[in-house]
Amino acid sequence: MKKKNIIIQLIIVLAIILVANLISNGLYFRLDFTEDDRYTFSDATQDVLDDLGGVITIKAYFSEDLPAQLLKSKQDFKDQLTEYENRSGGNIVYEFINPNESEETEREAQEQGISPVMINVQERDQVQQLRAYMGAVLKMDDRTEVIPMVQPGAGLEYSLTTAIKKIAITDKPKVGYIQGFGEPSIYALPQLMRQLSVLYDVEPFQIKDTASIPSYYRALIWVNPKDSVGSNQFAKLDSYLQKGGGMFVAYSNVEGDLQQGLLSKSTDVGVKGWLAGKGLSIGDNFVIDAQCATVSVQQNLGFAVMNTQKQFPYFPMVNNFEDHSITGGLESVMLPFVSNISFNKADTSISTIPLVYTSEQSGLVTPPTYIDIQKKWTENDFRAGAQLVAAGVENANSKIILVTNGSFIVNGEGQRPQQQSEDNINLAANAVDWLADDTGLIDLRTKGITSRPLDQVEEATKTILKYANVVAPIFLILLYAFIRRQMNNRKRQRWMQGNYN
């Protein structure tokens, strides 16, 4: 009877395990305790997966012998793909391939657009270089999208969801890039165009060449016009906005010339007055901020010339963001030679949208004046308080987002384009998404990307903290040992007195 009972109990346990596995496969879930919910699927991703009209095959090309920090990225990517597969109802299929196992698979990865990166691997006190692959290729019918490298710490959900959406949709919505008034060409903004090309077909648009602005444009982008804009052109913009259009405007009302050392007011091309009529008034001044970027300054040391970095308050590094989907996830944006914004609510139907402020240690400089790189700034220069430098307005029909700097997203053309920070690009791309996209992918671009820089401290404080980190643990160990010794001595004394409680 005992043997029979044991067999029955064993069968019951195995049955329970089998049923639990079947249920867990059908009810796949995981708990997410991260602060920013980076492992929780967004509604935008689920909507993209629900709308798939076919099967997407994902080939993940990852090397096997990756160092620990990169191995975690591989596991995170695999976990993410598993969830995509489960949530897609069979429309996402993936496999992992090790390109390093043969010349054939390595050639296949490179032909698909996955290039190796050289990483240092330490083994037995020796540093060796490894050709590592960390990319993926997505295919649907005859369409292909490549993620050339899965960046450690990057937003995996945004990369995957946008790649899936990019090959799943055949007709992208259009966004117009206004030209004809001295703006930088569309080729001068490659970083922004790469971001926007995921969801939109951005094309140059000449307002002068048409009687009206086509309504199929989900939004318009206008970057730093330099030539006068006629009233009839503004009338076309007004008509477009009244029909439900949206505009992102990056415009400089003031100009700073580092070569000439001159600060001046920009030529009035009509944009400032037009924006004021929409509720956005631009100040005729430069905002300076004690929280700023640096510029390179040459110092003559007698026998040599040395470049040093000097704080330059005309280049504010702003991280004072309002809680809005446009600014969500941003850490710091650099806005050189920027003006302030104030709201002009002549129209009571307008809703105001403050977005970005400088720090509380800000000031205002009225042009024209000269730049003094060697100036010693004091607290009195920064008593104007936080200044609004990016904002928007909306009513029942239209939306406008304004940043009072026309160069913060411009890379330039030629052999030496200037690389802009990712958050500069993200701010503009988020603004266009908010104006034109209704899928919710705007919230994914910076999801899981978090920087927590240390507070700036003085050198004396750094020295105290450094030595405290060395001395404090030793002191705590000695204190613990002393307390334990005292406790043992008391216990020994009680035993000697015959007290064993």
Can you tag this structure with a few keywords?
Glutaredoxin, four-stranded mixed beta sheet, Rossmann fold, eight-stranded mixed beta sheet, 501 residues, alpha+beta, single chain, globular, 4 domains
Overall description:
This protein has an eight-stranded mixed sheet with strand order 8-7-9-10-24-23-20-17, with helices on one face. It has a four-stranded mixed sheet with strand order 2-1-5-6, covered by helices on one side. Strands 11-12-22 form a three-stranded antiparallel sheet, with no helix packed on it. The chain is α+β, with helices and mostly antiparallel strands and 501 residues long. The longest helix has 38 residues, at 459-496. The chain has ten helices and 24 strands. β23 (388-394) and β24 (399-403) form a beta hairpin. The mean pLDDT is 86. The chain folds into four domains: 1-30; 43-166, Glutaredoxin (3-Layer(aba) Sandwich); 173-258 and 265-283 and 323-358 and 387-443, Rossmann fold, CATH 3.40.50; 461-501. It starts with a helix and ends in a 5-residue tail after the last helix.
Structural domains: how many: 4
Rg over alpha carbons: 30 Å
Strand content: 25-35%
How far is it from the N-terminal to the C-terminal residue, by CA? 50 Å
Binned, the helix content reads 25-40%
Tell me the structural class. alpha+beta
- CATH class of the largest domain, anyone? Alpha Beta
Number of strands: 24
Number of helices: 10
Q: Any guess at the CATH architecture of the largest domain?
A: 3-Layer(aba) Sandwich
Shape: globular
Provide the spatial order of strands within the biggest beta sheet: 8-7-9-10-24-23-20-17
What's the story with the biggest beta sheet? 8 strands, mixed
CATH fold name of the largest domain, please? Rossmann fold
List unreliable stretches of 5+ residues. none
Instruction: Tell me the name of the CATH homologous superfamily of the largest domain.
Output: Class I glutamine amidotransferase (GATase) domain
Mean pLDDT: 86
